[in-house]
Write a structure and sequence with these properties.
Elements lengths: L1 E5 L2 E4 L7 E3 L15 E3 L2 E3 L3 E3 L8 H9 L3 E5 L11 H9 L5 H8 L6 H12 L6 E4 L4 H11 L3 E5 L17 H7 L4 E6 L2 H8 L5 E4 L9 H4 L6 H19 L4 E5 L5 H9 L4 E4 L1 H4 L9 E3 L13 E3 L6 H6 L11 H12 L4 H4 L4 E3 L9 H6 L6
Parallel strand pairs: 6-7, 6-13, 7-8, 8-9, 9-10, 10-11, 11-12, 12-13
Antiparallel strand pairs: 1-2, 3-16, 4-5, 14-15
Helix pairs in contact: 1-4, 2-3, 4-5, 7-9, 10-13
Length: about 375
């Protein structure tokens, strides 16, 4: 439904996580008996959780830990791990920088050229632990890095930019043909990011195994403030999953939707799945783990941009181990730990046996859902009102 925002100009109403709630089902299920696995090409992930390709979240050691717990961590092939052999000292520098100088320091450190030999080295470090390996690159480097990653043994290749479309126009550089690229790659390709039905459908038609949905919602991302673009995640996910369903009915090919960004609690993750996502890509929640390389800090992928940074370094702290964040036991009262348990429990309460059934959950518009009746939590800044 559109409303007038001025004379002869309409805008469509859109929704974010804090504006909706999930309606409990007529039938409930034991949370331990629901299936939360997620398809990704020919792979199946035991849990529908991916760690964002951000340097404060994923290094090779974190990727191994995530893989052993059933999830999938994406290593950034544009980041410090392929620019510096000894990256620990670089991480120390970034974590010790003052807030005023952090962005300039990150920009300076990321000027060092990418060492392609380190791409293969990092992938082998992950594969040595016998866990799935996923890596990410921007479209301009997809052809070159995709070949290196595939030969080194990567299992998933992610092509990611602020906004990714099939019909990109450029004269200064060669535009990647996603249909040819996906056909040539022998491993699943994930494309992103997108937020609209039409773009999602065109990306699905390239042969991608999955799409990343989300522009600017991440806690360390400043795209919405710098560029003014983005669509609230609930609406973006719903629109893109509509494209997935149309494409599936038309071709019989299922393209997974991965909600990327904007989820800080288990409730947000449950709402993402109910809105239509097959899985979630999370950054800040995992940046807070003991295994994360950021030393309690987290910065966006576009923070190093030389001319127009669209991210910032934020302090998230360290609240627990990766296992505690994923599986508990939760030691905090704000919904940021035991994310898998939250998803299972929510699915049990809405009566969803699997992710596909969770996507059919009834949703209501409820902007006061997090604050209704929470007077004491609000006054004392506890639980949902921190």
């Amino acid at each position: 439904m559109s409303v007038f925002i001025g004379k002869d100009r309409k805008a469509r109403r859109s929704y974010g996580f804090d504006e909706i709630a999930l309606v409990p089902g007529d039938v409930t299920i034991n949370p331990e008996e629901v299936d939360i696995s997620m398809p990704l090409g020919k792979m199946t992930l035991p849990i529908p959780f991916l760690a964002s390709a951000m340097d404060g979240v994923v290094d090779p050691k974190f990727a191994v830990a995530m893989g052993k717990l059933g999830g999938l961590a994406v290593l950034n092939l544009e980041g410090i791990y392929v620019r510096y052999d000894d990256y620990e000292t670089i991480l120390d520098e970034i974590s010790k920088a003052s807030p005023e100088k952090a962005t300039q320091l990150v920009q300076k450190l990321y000027v060092k050229p990418i060492n392609e030999k380190l791409i293969a080295k990092r992938i082998r470090e992950i594969k040595k632990a016998k866990v799935p390996c996923a890596v990410s690159a921007i479209p301009q480097r997809a052809e070159r890095f995709g070949k290196i990653a595939e030969e080194a043994g990567a299992d998933v290749f992610v092509v990611q930019s602020t906004v990714t479309t099939v019909r990109h126009i450029a004269k200064a550089y060669q535009v990647v043909d996603f249909k040819k690229f996906c056909k040539k790659m022998k491993i699943p390709v994930v494309l992103g990011n997108c937020v609209t039905y039409k773009v999602a459908l065109e990306l699905a038609e390239t042969g991608a195994a999955a799409l990343l949905v989300g522009i600017g919602p991440g806690s360390a991302c400043t795209t919405r403030g710098v560029l003014g673009i983005g669509v609230p995640q609930v609406t973006a996910i719903a629109d893109c999953t509509a494209a997935r369903e149309y494409y599936y009915k038309k071709t019989g090919k299922y393209v997974s939707i991965i909600a990327d960004g904007g989820m800080s609690t288990g409730g947000d993750i449950c709402k993402s799945i109910a809105s239509g996502a097959d899985g979630v890509m999370v950054g800040s929640a995992f940046a807070r783990t003991k295994e994360a390389p950021g030393r309690g800090f987290h910065w966006g992928m576009a923070t190093p941009h030389a001319n127009l940074p669209r991210g910032t370094r934020i302090h998230v702290g360290t609240t627990g181990s990766l296992e505690e964040i994923l599986y508990g036991p939760a030691r905090l009262d704000d919904g940021t730990q035991n994310l898998v348990g939250a998803l299972r429990t929510s699915m049990g309460n809405v009566g969803a046996k699997n992710i596909r059934e969770m996507q059919l959950t009834e949703i209501v518009i409820a902007p006061a859902i997090k604050t209704e009746g929470k007077l004491f939590q609000s006054a004392q800044k506890l639980g949902m009102c921190k």
